[in-house]
Amino acid sequence: MTQALEDLGAHIRASMTSAIEGHAVAFGELTLTARAEQIATVITFLRDDPRCRFTTLIDICGADYPERTKRFDVVYHLLSMHLNQRIRIKLETDESAPVPSIAGIFPCADWFEREAFDMYGILFANHPDLRRLLTDYGFQGWPLRKDFPLSGHVEVRYDAEQQRVIYEPVKLTQAFRNFDFLSPWEGMTLPGDEKAAAEPKK
Fold first, then answer.
1. pTM above 0.85, yes or no
2. Which of 11-25, 122-136, 173-187 has the lowest mean pLDDT?
3. Is the separation of the CB atoms in 133 and 118 below 8 Å?
4. Contacts with 135 (C-beta within 8 Å, 6 or more apart), sequence order
5. Gap between the Cα atoms of 52 and 11, Å rounded
6. Domain 2-136 has CATH 3.40.980.10
7. Alpha-carbon span 174 to 91, nearest angstrom
8. For residues 34 and 23, what is the distance between their CA atoms, to the nearest angstrom?
9. Does residue 146 contact residue 64 with C-beta atoms inside 8 Å?
10. CA 97/CA 76 separation, integer angstroms
11. CA–CA dist 161, 50 (Å, integer)
């Protein structure tokens, strides 16, 4: 299986030298690294080439690496049911450079790209309706970025007097705590320990 994936990766890379930067096989899966501006060409090739036939788009997701100049990875997962193979395509982008939308190639990419935009702020050029999908109207920030605060910026509640949902600054009823994650049997004092210590040893 590994050799078949290596051969497939070499075939794809040889067929698209200007669009594919590299390929690797790990954990029984083939991963391609593509140039962002060429992603639509790559996806179309993978769908239509007779040695590939990746006709099912499983998912598009993001990953955040804030220490990099191009902080985001956009990751595409495709399935070839004809060949019983999966493939992963990765590309890098930043906060301002849009990635070409593939919604015209795989219509289900519409909501996947909207989710990546909603969670990370990744932009997709020529998307038919790029707006938030999972967060509330007027939500500020990008929840899956590494620099997004754990507590969020606002909290939401329904106000019976105003008969509407209102936003308020986050109020933490308890300060953040540091947990030592010790086993309860090592180093912690449990209720009843004082009795055991007071009993004379026989």
1. no
2. 173-187
3. yes
4. 118, 143
5. 9
6. no
7. 41
8. 9
9. yes
10. 18
11. 63
